[in-house]
Amino acid sequence: MDKRKVLNQITAIRIALDTLEEEVNGAPGTSCPHTHKKILTTMGGPEEWRCEDCGFHFVEGGK
Question: Which of 22, 26, 32, 44 makes a 20 to 30 Å CA pair with 15?
């Protein structure tokens, strides 16, 4: 493979990973107010919850 083809493949992989990250974490600037939280906190553990509307997953301390 020549250098140009390799660079194009790397760019395509980066775009695919960025798209996947947005799907998993939600696009930046999401307007969901996270009003329907499912509490996942365990006794003695860090605060943890998941938004039932958008799927955002919060863990205190950024685990």
Answer: 32
- The structural domain count of the chain equals 2
> Cα–Cα distances in Å, from 26 out to 16, 32, 57?
15, 10, 10
Instruction: Compute the distance between CA of residue 31 and CA of residue 23 in angstroms, rounded to an integer.
Output: 15
Identify whether residues 43 and 63 lie together within a single domain.
yes
Which strands make up the sheet holding 57-59, listed edge to edge?
A: 37-39, 48-51, 57-59
Binned at pLDDT 50, 70 and 90, residue 40 comes out as very high
C-alpha 17/C-alpha 20 separation (Å) is 5
Q: What is the pTM of this model?
A: 0.49
